[in-house]
Amino acid sequence: MNWLRRWNARSLASQFFIAGGLISIAAMFVVGFFVSHLIEETVIHNSGAATALYVDSVIAPLLPNMQTESLLDDVSAQALDETLGQGALGKRLVSFKLWRSDGTILYSNEKELVGKTFAVSDKLQRAFAGSLVARYEIASDPESDKERALGKPLMEIYNPVLQPWSGQAVAVLEFYETAEGLGDSLAHARLRSWGAVAALTATFFLVLSVLVFRGSRTIEAQRKDLKERVTELSALLAENRGLQRRLQRASQRAAALNETYLRGIGADLHDGPAQHIAYASLRLDSDVLINASTQPEAREKELAWIRSSLAEAMTEIRSICSGLVLPQIEKSSITEIVTRVIDAHQHKTESHVETIVDEDGPELPPAVKICIYRFVQEALNNAYRHGGGVQQTVRAVSHKGHVHVEVSDRGDGFDPTEVRPTSLGLVGLRERINSLGGSFDIRTGEGGTTVTMIFEPMEVGE
């Protein structure tokens, strides 16, 4: 089966050239042999017919009535001897025999054969049936020892002697002719016939080859293009599967982070505002406010504590809400978004943030703008909480759809391996950025921490 695989691996043009070439060569030999054999038989038959006509016109008048004679009389035999021994006919003929239907030789220029009977050959039977038989070959019949001794091909002709009024063959003239030049004529005829067949076959094969090679090139080009397309589609399919798995994981992590984030908000509300409100509620039921005998100063002092607790609860609630509610940033530029986050951070922490913004790109999708806002907000909060807010810097670049945002500080840094998977800050940032097709990176050490977010043009457009 290895040869079959190697054969199938070849191009269609190569397969056609090999298979078509072999078939064309085989067809050329078959047709050439048939045509050359047909031409050879035609040439021999025509040459024999011309000679037979000539011999028949010279010899037939000398023959007696073959219906009544069993052997030739001396006068007819002498007339044949004289005719065959001289002139152009005598030079052309090697031997001459007159046959009777039973295989008896009635006359021959070889006198020892006269009166002898031989087996009737197929050629003699066909001649008595009325057909002219011509062969160009070395004599092989039993009565042709003299002709065979010459060792060269001769023209052997069997010409029927027909009865004038009935057309029945009453005898057969057999003679051998030297036929000089016939061999060369046959060789030239064979050569010309083979040349014609070869030229026709080669022309036919070349024309087909041109068509097949052109078609093969087109098919190969289409096959190559199709293979490239299949490769591209396979790559896109693999990429889509990867993105689908990535989206599923991101969705699962986002659901888990949302749940954790909600628990964090609940904890903040429970540990902060809820405690202050509970404290104020308990003070409202105190004896100081219920007892009518309580002094006004004590009552006012108790109310002051209640007001203070409620005020602290409202302050913390507003602080939590301010972190949850985004400002209107859909129509804002990157410069406005970054400036708004930094101003809020500086007002809240009373720290300084160096700002570098370079913006000359196209309008960004709202999802990317929200991601930039949250990224800068969370990164600055982490820098202030864990790095002490030392030399905080924000660099934001948007150029032809390429977005690069970097938040850094010069604090003590931290160990990234110690970040818990349930941590809302860094994990939340990474998941938010990855879900939009961006990249997230953290570099930290003794010299500080740098958090980077990058979106490529294609990713932003999508």
From TrEMBL:
Gene Ontology annotations for the cellular component aspect, listed alphabetically: membrane
Coiled-coil regions listed in the entry: 216-260
Start and end residues of each Histidine kinase/HSP90-like ATPase domain: 367-459
A Pfam cross-reference name: HATPase_c
Sorted UniProt keywords: Coiled coil, Kinase, Membrane, Transferase, Transmembrane, Transmembrane helix, Two-component regulatory system
UniProt entry tagged with the keyword Membrane: yes
GO molecular function: phosphorelay sensor kinase activity; protein dimerization activity
Transmembrane intervals: 12-35, 194-213
UniProt-listed PANTHER family: HISTIDINE KINASE DIMERISATION AND PHOSPHOACCEPTOR REGION (PTHR24421:SF57), NITRATE/NITRITE SENSOR PROTEIN NARX-RELATED (PTHR24421)
Protein name per its UniProtKB record: Histidine kinase/HSP90-like ATPase domain-containing protein
Species for this entry: Rhizobium esperanzae
Taxonomic lineage from the root: Bacteria, Pseudomonadati, Pseudomonadota, Alphaproteobacteria, Hyphomicrobiales
